[in-house]
Amino acid sequence: MKKIITTSKAPAPIGPYNQAVLSGNTLYTSGQIAINPETGDLVLDDIKTETIQVMQNLKAVLKAADMTFENVIKASIFISNMNDFIQINEVYGSYFNDDTAPARETVQVARLPKDVNVEISMIAIK
Asked: Which InterPro entries does the annotation name (predicted)?
């Protein structure tokens, strides 16, 4: 059985999907982009600020499922420009302990929703 996870502390979905779905002890988050949940505005000042907003949105979704980044076992990062990887990785890495960081892939894509520069989704377990 699946349970839909929602929070007002992360952006509302912009399509036919939910912020996250909990199935048993496994949480599947939808991809988060840098939308400020309070204003609905995109946060695109620079790649670090954008990535911080993405991670804060994911943090809120994890919290709504009573989890933290320590529960994350897999992350998928989609970026529009591989030249931004070092800065994105720096911000992303600050949310994890190197010894227990999740598995991950980082993929450059041609385009992301709302023409953002980074989108991240995660899988977590309790």
From this structure: RidA, RutC-like_sf, YjgF/YER057c/UK114
